[in-house]
Design goal:
It is built from six helices and five strands. By secondary structure, it is α/β, with parallel strands linked by helices. The chain binds adenosine-5'-diphosphate. Adenosine-5'-diphosphate binds next to α1 and β4.
């Protein structure tokens, strides 16, 4: 059975992420979307909130599950017998960082782990969770960028912060 993991912060999930999820779910028997705790960043939403928003967004895909993890991605992968990482590439600016991570993951896993890159659909090339948060913070409608339940959650979060 082919199994892949799509890791990220998903703070919050956008249509760009969902495009990668849809396309990679057609390439593997099972796709695991891994929500990273990531102590280096201060997320707007907790891991539980990010996971719940993703779960609602991927309901239609039978072979996709959402998990959250802390620590090293490759440790999680070894433990759960996953050998492929899926990442999205939006622009050349993503490339340097992604290449470095992919090569080091390959090295530390004794070449048992590979990374598959999907280039973003042109419609979402400009889209990032940070841009969505910035718009939502100032009350701009973000329904073209995220599912409606995520837009509602953003609205609620920024309303509370005012
Ligand atoms: P990270 O903190 O790991 O960058 P993100 O949640 O921002 O987490 O992104 C997770 C993955 O999704 C990354 O591979 C990123 O390049 C990809 N991604 C983010 N936004 C888009 C988009 N608009 N189109 C395609 N891929 C995207």
């Amino acid at each position: 059975m082919s199994r892949a993991i799509y890791p990220g912060s998903f703070d919050p999930v956008t249509f760009g992420h969902l495009d990668i999820i849809k396309r990679s779910s057609e390439m593997f028997d099972e796709l695991i979307v891994g929500v990273l705790y990531n102590s280096a960043k201060t997320p707007l939403f907790s891991v539980a909130e990010r996971t719940q928003m993703l779960e609602e967004a991927i309901r239609e895909y039978e072979n996709v599950i959402v998990i959250c993890f802390d620590g090293l991605l490759i440790d999680y992968m070894k433990k759960h017998d996953i050998s492929v990482i899926v990442r999205g590439l939006r622009a050349i600016t993503d490339f340097d960082y992604e290449l470095q991570i992919a090569q080091s993951n390959r090295k530390v896993s004794d070449e048992t782990i590979d990374t598959v890159f999907l280039t973003t659909s042109i419609d979402y090339a400009y889209l990032s969770s940070s841009i969505v948060k910035e718009y939502a913070r100032y009350g701009t409608d973000v329904s073209d960028f995220v599912p409606s339940h995520v837009a509602a959650k953003l609205k609620e979060r920024f309303y509370k912060m005012q």
